[in-house]
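for the writeup, i need someone to sanity check this before i put it in the appendix. the sequnce is what the collaborator sent (i think, or maybe the updated version? ugh). structure was predicted straight from it, no edits. if anything looks off just tell me and ill rerun, i have time this weekend
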Amino acid sequence: QVQLVESGGGSVQAGGSLRLSCAASGRTAILNIHWYRQAPGKEREFVATTSWSTGITNVADSVKGRFTISRDNAMNTVFLQMNSLKPEDTAIYYCNALSGRLENFWGRGTQVTVSS
């Protein structure tokens, strides 16, 4: 099992920044950590991913150049630095872990609201 707890969400004005954290715990080895988001009335969409072992990252085109994903293995935490936020970034942001057994685990999410 993997437990994931997101934090760092909040309300900001357009152009502002937030840093989300995803703290992972449990005994199951993790392959990748992803961030997804879901806006009201929309499907959940991929935002960013990082390999737990190599640190190789990728972000969605919609946030490229504005969002950065990073990890601190010593803290078992993955961060999502979000800059130049836009109203369309408003969503619940979820942390997702893919384990070595190819199981998916989800956090409860953290709300990000960007006002114009």
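The chain has no helices and eleven strands. The longest strand covers residues 18-26.
thx in advance!!
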